[in-house]
Every structure is written in C-alpha cells, then in structure tokens.
Amino acid sequence: MGQCKYCGQSAGLFSHAHKACEEKHKQGIAELLAYLNGYFNGTGSISSVLHKIKTLQADNYLSKEDIATCCSKAIEHYADVVKLPITKQHLQIVDIFLNNIGIPRTALNRTGALDVLGKRFYQGTLMSYFAENEPMAKVEKRTQIVTRLLPISSELKESAGLVALDKAAHKYLSNGLITDSEQAHLDDFSTALGLPVNNLPARYKGSDIEKMQQASILRRIQSGQFPPQNSFTVPIMLASGEYIIWQYPNVTMYQEKITKEWVGRSSGWSYRVCKGVYYRTGGSKGHSIEHSSMENVGVGTLVLTNKNIIFYSPQKSSKVPYKKLIGVTPYSDGVELQKDGANAKRQVFQGFDSWFIMNLLSVINI
Q: How far is residue 31's CA from residue 59's CA, in Å, rounded to a whole number?
C-alpha cells in the first residue's frame, strides 16, 4: 500500500498522495506566496509572515524546502517589480526578512534569487547618478551599503554598470548627438566603475554604449581632432597618414556578380532527325542578356579609416576609398556601396548598425 507523502496515512495501492492533501498543499503554497509578496510590497509584516508559515506547515503540509522555494520566488518577484530609486526602506525590508526568516542564504540563493535582487538594487543605486545627478562618490558609498547586505560578484557588478550606462546613453542619444557635458558625465561613470567600454561584451554590439563612443568620435572629427586610438588588431597595411577610426567584427560581405546568357528567337520549320534529336531550319537571331546577383564573399572585419573602407577576411579583402564612392545605401543591418568605375560592382556589408558609418561620411574630410 502506498503512503501519502503529505499526511503520512495510507493512500491506496500505487498512490503516493491523497487528492485532498495535494489540494491543501497547493493552496498552502499559493497563500504563502501571497503573504510573502505582501510583505515585500509593504502591506504585511514579518511577524505575520512567520505566523503564516507555522500555520501552513501544520495545516497544509509545507516542508522547509517548500518554504525556501516560496521565499526565493518572492525575492525574484520583488526584484522584478521594485520601483527605483532604491531607498533605505527597500534595504530595511530585505534586511529584516533575511535576519528573521530562518532560512540560510545559500538555500534562498539556490536559483540565484538573491543575486538577481542584489544586481537590481546595485543597478538601481547606480542609476541615481544620472536620475538624481548625485556625485559619483556618494553613489559609490550607497553601492557599498547595498553590497554589504546583498553581496554580488564582480561580474554582476560589471553587468549592472553596463546596463545603467546603456540606459543613460540611450536617453542622451534620443535628442541627437551627445553633448560635451553629457559625454563627460558618461565617461566619469564608466571610469569610476572600471567598465570595459573599449572592449564591450558581444551582447553590447550595436548598443547605445557603442553609439556613445561613436558619437564622441564624430564630435572630435567635427572639431578637427584625431579620435582616440583603440587597440585594433586587424592585420592590414595602412597608408601614410592613415589611421583606424572604427572596426566592425563578424561582417558578411556580398559582391555583385554579373552573369551573361545567350537567348534567341527562332523562326522556320523543325523536323525530327532521329529519336530525341530535332533540327530547326530557317533564321534564328540571338542576343546576350545579363543577370545580376549578390554573391557571399565571406565573413571578416570591416575597418573604417580616415581614408578608406577596408574589408579584411581570409577569403578576400577589399578597399574602397571614400573619394571613389558615388553611392551609399544604408540598411538596418549594414550598407551597400557603389564606387566609381566602368566595371565597378556593388558591395554589401551586413552585420552592424549603419548609423555610425553614415554619420562618419557626412563629417569626415574626404
């Protein structure tokens, strides 16, 4: 005979739980989550949560693991819904909960719930630098308070910093190019946190952080200054006085391919010579027609210098001087170039936001 895993009584042959006990257990889980969410929303007290836990353990068969799981879910939910900016009240709510719930942090963080909340609080505190124009020194003191309560890894700190920087850059870019004062604000923030703005993770390719750097370059070029030289590693030979402005990795190049076909119009009579063979008599006049298609050349790095657009890949490399360009068509994920020349073929480069290259062409002194 099977034994009910909730009440411990006989549950019948091949059964491990009574239906009524299962329903009680589900109801207890739902009630506990509601109480926990109410506590984090500020509508309940920690004493009411603890009392509810005792009642549900006795009446609804909640185990210690059930309670820990519910607490983790409630913490994750709080991280999703908490409103910024992060205040002392937010920290007090979490501090009181962790010190009274009676569950080890390792159990609460089994699914990363505390990490999620810590990153959210850390990020929200960082945002006060932009939202409230707080001095960076004051913001850093606040983040230290947050991380003492909710310790997070250096990777999560960097991730939160990049999210905050990306949001601020997006706001500044919404009105056009970033101003000098806005750029200084962003630079101070990224420098204080040691964010890798010159070596961004792949997920930030085409992000507003990248556009922030590009906007700074455009502003320097407009004022007649050289842009800052980053560590570019593409093995290309530069001409005298030529320097790299930007590079896009993992770009696919397509080049126009022209094929010719001979077609004709026939008139006259045809008759069968033998099985499968025919011969047409009379006049036949033919002519050549051309077909255009885009051929995939390969994947490589697109390099923008002060003189050329250079594509480098193991399969093929190409150089298009700015002076030879007679047409540029921007796309959401690349550009199409048309250069001067009798036999010049169209080239398409795909895999990046065309915002920067189009703005560069408008300000660079060709």
A: 12
Mean pLDDT score across all residues of the chain: 87
H/E segment holding residue 257: strand 244-266
Q: Which residue has the tokens 């530069």?
A: 238
State the residue range of the domain holding 337.
244-259+293-363
Same domain, 61 and 187: yes
Q: Edge-to-edge strand order for the sheet containing 284-305?
A: 318-321, 308-312, 284-305, 244-266, 347-350, 334-339, 325-331
pLDDT for 77:
97
Q: How many domains does the chain have?
A: 2
C-alpha to C-alpha distance for 305 and 201, rounded to whole angstroms: 23
Q: What is the pTM of this model?
A: 0.74
Which residues, in sequence order, are CB contacts of 361 under 8 Å at separation 6+? Answer: 322, 325, 328
Backbone angles phi, psi at 9, to 5 degrees: -85, 170
From its phi and psi, is residue 103 left (phi > 0), alpha (psi between -120 and 50) or beta?
beta
Q: Which of 150, 152, 232, 138 is nearest to 188 (CA)?
A: 138
277, part of any domain = no
pLDDT at 297: 87
Query: Is 135 part of any domain?
Result: yes
